[in-house]
Every structure is written in structure tokens, then in C-alpha cells.
Write a structure and sequence with these properties.
By secondary structure, the chain is an alpha/beta fold. It contains ten helices and twelve strands.
């Protein structure tokens, strides 16, 4: 391990900001700190917290850190500019400039950062082509080709479940426009269970726990959400023909009913018979994939 191989990775999420000093040769996290995002305060406050967090980590480590990588849950174009304001707004803020005053900084979409880490050190290692699908507060994906995330012509090739479908009922003529992210992601699952049970819940993890404990309403909500998402993951396979699917995010990593139903529904909607038994794997780096991948994205 050499000091020159260290970068600072920052995974800025809607609920927490995780940062760590990463040995980019091995993926090892040598020092870390996590703070709450508190997104309701706005982008300016989040940026100040992020800069302070970076200063603390740089000041506390004995390692030479020569790069900073930042993963954000946003559209990030191929020039590293933030192009969306989901959860919080950094579109017009000097994010790179503020952090670059501390070390050269790269900004990347969080899903591409996580996919990069899984390709280098995780479940995607050894696959020339795989698709990383993250399922948590939102839904996103990234195709990885020969170890590199595919960004698309503009940097926006990360969406697959946030556009409305158009479904016409031939019996009554009614048109339904469901958005799968509003059915199968964490907040949607919590909201659906609250409607079914009459009880407010803090998040999808509470619903998963209730289902595992035998709550029939929770199990129904979990199963319905996974079975809505499965056809879209199957469509990724049908369109892109990856060698494997790697599942990340809180729901993608959680063992049990959700993941089991999702995998079954995905396989049922894969067109090519030869692909139906393809590996569908949990992300090996777990929740650290985004942090590690942000550091890797900062490498020259």
C-alpha cells in the first residue's frame, strides 16, 4: 500500500453523507466519518457540512491524499456538472471549486461510482459486462463495460424506472400512468404499508422487518413492489444483455422477501432462455460501494 494511492471518497445521499480515505489500489477504507445530510436545510448548508467533513478527514489522516471524488444522487454530465436537484440542489453552487481548494476534485453520479467500485473490488469483478441496479430511496442503474461505467452521450444513462408507463384498459378505456419508482422504491413501500395498516412507519426497513415477522399486510406490500420492479430489471437484461446483474441500495441488499420476489420476477421476464439463470448478485461492498467508487472515480 502506498500513500500516493489514497483518495478521499464522499458519498452524498439524501439522508447521510459518508466520507472516507480510500486506498485505491485495494479499495480499503483507511478512515471514515458519516454525518446526517438534513436535506431540508438546502444545498448551501449541505455543501458547508461536506467541506467541513473533508477538512476534518484530511486533517486527521496521516496518509497523503491527493484527490477527492464526490458521488451525488443526481444527473451528472460528462463534464462533471450537476444537472438535477433531486433531494437537494447543488446545480448552481461552486461544489467542485470549494472542494478543489483542498485537493483536485471529481464529481460523479452516485450510481456510476458504486458500479465502478463493484467492478473493481466487488460482485462485478470478473464480469466484462454487468448491470448495477440500485434500489433504495430511488431506483437507478448503470451498465458497466470492461470495468468502466457507461455514461451515455450526455452522462444521463442512469434512469430506468422514473418515467410514467402508459397502460390502456381495453374494457373501460381508462389510461393508467404508473411510475415504478413510486411503487417499488423505499418511500413508496413505507407509504403503501402506512395506507394498508393505518400506522406511520419510518422507512421501508420497518416494512421488511414486519414482513419477516409474519405481518401479512407488510408481506403483500413488499411482494407487490418487487413484482412491479422485476419486469423492468428483466427489460434491462433484454436490452443490454449483461453477463450479470448486481443489486445495491438498501432494498437491493436486504435478504428475504423483497429480493427473492424481485429475482423471480426478473427471471420470469427475461426473453432469452439462455439468460434466465444469469447471476443476480447482491453488491459485495454493500453500503460502502458509493464511497469507495467516488474515490476511484477521482483517479487520473
Amino acid at each position: 500500500m502506498t500513500a500516493a494511492g489514497c483518495a478521499l471518497g464522499i458519498d452524498v445521499g439524501g439522508t447521510k453523507i459518508a466520507a472516507g480515505v480510500v486506498d485505491t489500489a485495494s479499495g480499503a477504507i483507511l478512515a471514515r466519518e458519516t454525518i446526517a445530510t438534513q436535506a431540508a436545510r438546502g444545498g448551501g448548508a449541505i455543501l458547508e457540512d461536506t467541506v467541513d467533513l473533508v477538512r476534518r478527514l484530511l486533517g486527521s489522516t496521516r496518509r497523503a491524499v491527493d484527490r477527492i471524488g464526490v458521488g451525488v444522487p443526481q444527473l451528472v454530465d460528462n463534464d462533471g456538472r450537476i444537472r438535477s436537484a433531486h433531494n437537494f440542489d447543488w446545480t448552481d453552487m461552486p461544489v467542485r471549486e470549494r472542494l478543489a481548494a483542498l485537493a483536485p476534485t471529481t464529481i460523479e453520479s452516485d450510481v456510476r461510482a458504486a458500479a465502478l467500485a463493484e467492478a473493481a473490488f466487488g460482485a462485478g469483478k470478473g464480469y466484462r459486462h454487468f448491470a448495477y441496479v440500485t434500489i433504495g430511496t430511488g431506483l437507478s442503474y448503470c451498465l458497466v463495460l470492461d470495468g468502466r461505467p457507461y455514461a451515455g452521450a450526455n452522462g444521463f444513462a442512469i434512469h430506468f424506472a422514473s418515467s410514467a408507463l402508459h397502460l390502456l384498459c381495453e374494457t373501460c378505456g381508462a389510461v393508467s400512468r404508473p411510475v415504478v419508482e413510486e411503487i417499488a422504491a423505499g418511500p413508496a413501500i413505507a407509504a403503501a404499508y402506512a395506507r394498508r395498516s393505518g400506522r406511520g412507519v419510518a422507512g421501508a426497513e420497518v416494512v421488511l422487518a414486519a414482513a419477516a415477522a409474519g405481518d401479512a399486510a407488510a408481506a403483500d406490500v413488499i411482494a407487490a413492489a418487487a413484482e412491479q420492479l422485476g419486469p423492468l430489471v428483466g427489460l434491462i437484461v433484454n436490452m443490454l444483455d449483461p453477463a450479470a446483474i448486481v443489486l445495491g441500495g438498501g432494498l437491493g441488499l436486504a435478504p428475504g422477501l423483497y429480493r427473492d420476489r424481485l429475482i423471480a420476477a426478473t427471471r420470469a421476464h427475461i426473453w432469452a432462455e439462455q439468460c434466465r439463470d444469469m447471476p443476480i448478485l447482491p453488491a459485495a461492498l454493500g453500503a460502502d460501494a458509493g464511497l469507495i467508487g467516488a474515490a476511484l472515480a477521482a483517479r487520473p
